[in-house]
Structures are given as structure tokens and as C-alpha cells.
Amino acid sequence: MSKMNLNVGIRGLKHGTSINDIEVPKALRTRRKVGISWFDDALGGEGLVPSSVMMLTGTPGAGKTTMLLQLANSITKAGHVCLYNTGEESLFQVKMVVERLGLREGFVVGQDTTVAGLLEHAEMLRKASPNKQVFILQDSLQTLDDDIAVERGGANSMTPLRCAEALTDWAKQNYGIVIFIGQVTKDGEFQGKNGIKHAIDSHGHLFIDKQKKSETYGERIFEVTKNRFGCSGRAYVLGIRRDGLYEKGEIN
């Protein structure tokens, strides 16, 4: 596994090469919208770049898993291949939530507990649908183990970082798109190695505003705090109902 493959590598690049001689692969010039307007708009309105990795964080109970399930459904509806892999809940629990939310597009599900198993599943889907964009949605990063964790009989503080690197490498090498939920503290702040923050291309944060003097006190806020391929800093007020999260308005 490579230490940190943040970009699609150019093999055999000679020292002294001019930037004018670099040809960007066609796949990187085509963005993929997920089909949920407030999510796409928060990323700049053009969608996600193939080969990109996004992390979602947020306060407990804000609706991160609900968001991920809605994304899986909408991505599939948009004609892409979406693999939703869960380590947080059983597939029976996931199915009941899907029924409650009224999600009917039939996205692919998995319950792999190792990153190797997850990527093997993703590769099977990619080879079966070579002309479609493949998404991996992982709930959540800290539920995955890698080969080192398995060999040692358990995960340690470096396991999530190694798993994030493996997911990043797969995305870069195969022009896949990965969205995973990251580990957070009780206050909803990111909890993990800073290397994970450096590995990802974008970071979305969903939280309940608890600042009593804020105009959005008590509301759910979704904001993109990092985006290598577009704008960041856009935030939306979201509501939640039986069929999931919905937009109430953009914060200017």
C-alpha cells in the first residue's frame, strides 16, 4: 500500500517536464452529480470528480447515515453504480430504514468488515459495468479493518488511516468515487489521524446548531469545509422528516 497517493500518478514523468505537456485524462474532466440538489450545490453545483474521496462528519443524531442512504438511492437513480457498505448496522436494520424513507432504487449493499473485501466487491461491480461510474459509500470508516489489523488480531489508531489510504488508492487508480463517514467525538468533531484529512479531496459536515445566539439555532446545517475540485464554504439549512433530509434554504 502506498503511503499517500493524493493524485492520479503519472508514471515515468521526467524531471524538467513542462506543465504544458501534461494531458489531463478525459475521465477527470467529467463530473458526476449525485442528484440531490443541496448536496450537489454545496460542492459547487457540478458534482464529484471521478477519483475523488469525500469524508462526512457530524454531530451524533444529525442524520449522517440517513444522508448516506439518500445519496445511495439518488446516485443509483442517476444511472450510476452505488455500493453501500455498512459496518454500523445489520442489513436488516438498513432495509427497515430504507423502507421508512421510501427509497426504491435498489442500490447494491454489502457488509464487508475489511477494506480488502470491500474493494473486491467494488471491483466486481466495476468490471460488470465498465461504462458506469462506480461509487463506494462506507458507513463508517472506523468499522473497517485492513490486512495488518487482521494479522495482529485487532485494529489500532493507525487502522482507519491505512483504510482511508487504500480507499484513496482505489479511487485514484480506477476513477472511482468514495464517500465515507468519519469518526467523530461526542461534539461531532473529527476524531482521527490528520493523515485522513490530507488524504480526502472533500469534507462535508452535518451538525445541529447549538449556538443559542445563532440565527439557525436548533437547525441542521450541512456545509462543505474542504473541496479540492471546487468551491467550499457553502452551507445549507436542512430539515428532517419521515422521508429523510430536505433543504430549507442556503446560508448566505
Question: Please, how many helices?
Answer: 7
Number of strands: 9
Structural class: alpha/beta
Poorly predicted runs: 1-8
> Can you tell me the CATH superfamily?
P-loop containing nucleotide triphosphate hydrolases
Largest sheet: 9 strands, mixed
Total of domains:
1
Through-space gap between termini: 42 Å
CATH topology: Rossmann fold
Estimated helix fraction: 25-40%
* The CATH top-level class label: Alpha Beta
Description:
By secondary structure, the protein is an alpha/beta fold. It has one domain: Rossmann fold. The protein contains 7 helices and 9 strands. It has helices spanning 37-42, 64-77, 91-101, 115-128, 147-152, 159-174, 194-199, and strands at 53-58, 81-86, 108-110, 134-139, 177-181, 202-208, 220-227, 235-241, 244-251. Strands 3-2-4-5-1-6-7-8-9 form a 9-stranded mixed β-sheet, with helices on both faces. Strand 7 and strand 8 (235-241) form a beta hairpin. The longest helix has 16 residues, at 159-174. 39% of the residues are buried. Mean pLDDT is 94; it is low at 1-8.
Quick recap of the structure?
This protein is α/β, with parallel strands linked by helices and 252 residues long. It is built from seven helices and nine strands.
Topology:
Blueprint: H1 37-42, E1 53-58, H2 64-77, E2 81-86, H3 91-101, E3 108-110, H4 115-128, E4 134-139, H5 147-152, H6 159-174, E5 177-181, H7 194-199, E6 202-208, E7 220-227, E8 235-241, E9 244-251
Parallel strand pairs: 1-5, 1-6, 2-3, 2-4, 4-5
Antiparallel strand pairs: 6-7, 7-8, 8-9
